[in-house]
Amino acid sequence: MSQGFCDAQRGSGALAPAGRSARGRRAGDAAVELLVDGLPVRLTRKRVKNLNLRIARTGGCVEVSAPLHVRDQDVERFVLEKRTWIDQKRAQAASSPAARAAQASPEQVAAWRAVVEACAPVLVEAWEPIMGVKAGKLAYRNMTSRWGSCQPSTGRICLNVRLALYPPECLEYVVVHELCHLLERGHGPRFKELMDTFMPDWRERRDKLQ
Q1: What's the CATH number for 106-207?
Q2: pLDDT tier at 182, thresholds 50, 70, 90
Q3: H/E element holding 74?
């Protein structure tokens, strides 16, 4: 189960192709760094139609993907137009659980693990008969890119200890999500149908993990 790590905004439309700047890049090349009104911006040119802006959940990174031939000055203007939104998102991110997790001490991580280890088995035991599944070994890790994972062949479920930083219903959602993979490996229509059946408000719970 992937963990989303950014807020994003998209430009209202594709910019007209313009002269290639000295710092332009072809699709797939390394990103370049721009400084826009004192704000570091990581720019990557891709085969896309619109300018897209993303803010890392920790608030420390502003990323822009742009069509191949858009000039740096057009990117800078786009960032300036979105500056109020950027500042708001960065302020929110600075106090978010994700930001706290990024700076956590080993002792804090251990405390999170203790909470999840205490709560998860109870949730698994409660949901197994409801869903008609049987989980295997439960594991716990401090992960940066996933809330959980499941190995259907063994029933092993791994949970992110950072879930301790979020409301209890978020941990329950992840538990049900991973148990659901014992019935359906992928995230296609059948998986969503199963989630809708077992936990109708799963999308609302998922959204709290932003």
Answers
A1: 3.30.2010.10
A2: very high
A3: helix 72-81
